[in-house]
Each structure stands twice: as structure tokens, then as C-alpha cells.
């Protein structure tokens, strides 16, 4: 997580230096639902997350930039016997997942210049995923940096020329890597405030 925080601080500095160009910076509250192998590990809906998106408009309907975020998932499993790393341990499980995507991203806006502006986009980069399982005094952890894709859909609603509201759905798909022999993916729902630069 330390690397992610350092990268986030660096990206904020870039945003400040580009504040006078035509751009959009979106800070969003993010809710998540794990899918696939990650969903089998932590199946509960999560309300803990945030995203940061920056787009510089290279055409009236095309924005390029980056996307970063952090989602936390949590699940409880009943008292039982579980096999972890060729060991069988009995107890109640508490499962935690931290997922942090960092990607280059581009969006295509369907109605540039209008107050209600739907868009589709794609991010390509990496996701850091950490899974931790607590059982009594024991903690078992797995983690990986994996190559990832994030298709997204959403809309931007302009409040005025300087601000707007964004609603989006992103599907974060991390490929198998590190401690994970299957991909780690989740769907996020994001509601954000948009700062618009000139």
C-alpha cells in the first residue's frame, strides 16, 4: 500500500500542474462486488472504496489519462476445518481483501458539450491484490501485482462549467499472477464529484 500512496501523491502533483488545461478530475466513492475466484473468497458486497480519475480532453469526445483506486472486501466464515497451504486448521475465518488498481485510461463521450454526457471507457495497467485470512492467532496472506483491464460505462452530468457529477460502473479484471493461479476481479459502482479545468 505504501507504493500506492506514493504513486497517488505523485499523480496529485501532476494534476496540479495541468490544472489550466481542459481536463476532468473525478474523486468517487466506490462500492464493490467481488466476482469469480475473488467472489468465492469474499462474497459480501462492500461499501469501502474510492477512485481517482483524471482525463485530459484530446478531442471534444475523447479523454485520456489515468485511473486509480482502492476497494476493501470483508467476509466471515463459520467455525469449521479449513485447509490452507497443506495444513488443516479449525476455527472461524475472517477474510480481508485489499485491491488497488492503477491504470492508463481513455474514455469516449457520446454527447460532448451537453449537460448529460454518457461515456464508455477502458483502462489498462495493473492491480495489486492482497488477501488475508485470520483464524485465531494465525494469519495467512496471499498477494500479487497482476496485469489488468478495466472496461467501464457511465455518465457525466455537468452542474456548471467548473463542476459535475459522475456515475460509473467499472469491471476490474486482474489476470492470474503471483500467489493466485486464477484471475482476481470485481465490479465497482462509483459516484463522484468532477472538477473541470479550462
Automatic annotation (TrEMBL):
Coiled coil: none annotated. Residues 9-193 form the Outer membrane protein beta-barrel domain. Residues 1-21 form the signal peptide. The keyword Transcription regulation does not apply. Keywords: Signal. InterPro entries: Beta-barrel_OMP, OMP/PagP_B-barrel. This is Outer membrane protein beta-barrel domain-containing protein. It comes from Algoriphagus jejuensis.
Amino acid at each position: 500500500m505504501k507504493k500506492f500512496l506514493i504513486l497517488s501523491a505523485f499523480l496529485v502533483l501532476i494534476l496540479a500542474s495541468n490544472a489550466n488545461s481542459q481536463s476532468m478530475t473525478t474523486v468517487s466513492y466506490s462500492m464493490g462486488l467481488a466476482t469469480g475466484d475473488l467472489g468465492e473468497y469474499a462474497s459480501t458486497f462492500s461499501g469501502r472504496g474510492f477512485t481517482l480519475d483524471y482525463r485530459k480532453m484530446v478531442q471534444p469526445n475523447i479523454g485520456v489519462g489515468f485511473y486509480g483506486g482502492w476497494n476493501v472486501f470483508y467476509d466471515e466464515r463459520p467455525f469449521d476445518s479449513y485447509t490452507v497451504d497443506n495444513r488443516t486448521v479449525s476455527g472461524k475465518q475472517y477474510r480481508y481483501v485489499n485491491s488497488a488498481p492503477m491504470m492508463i485510461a481513455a474514455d469516449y463521450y457520446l454527447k460532448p458539450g451537453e449537460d448529460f454526457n454518457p461515456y464508455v471507457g477502458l483502462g489498462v495497467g495493473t492491480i495489486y491484490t492482497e488477501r488475508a485470512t485470520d483464524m485465531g492467532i494465525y494469519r495467512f496472506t496471499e498477494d500479487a501485482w497482476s496485469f489488468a483491464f478495466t472496461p467501464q460505462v457511465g455518465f457525466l452530468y455537468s452542474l456548471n462549467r467548473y463542476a459535475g457529477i459522475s456515475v460509473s460502473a467499472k469491471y476490474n479484471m486482474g489476470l492470474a499472477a503471483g500467489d493466485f493461479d486464477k484471475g482476481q476481479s470485481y465490479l465497482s459502482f462509483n459516484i463522484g464529484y468532477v472538477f473541470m479545468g479550462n
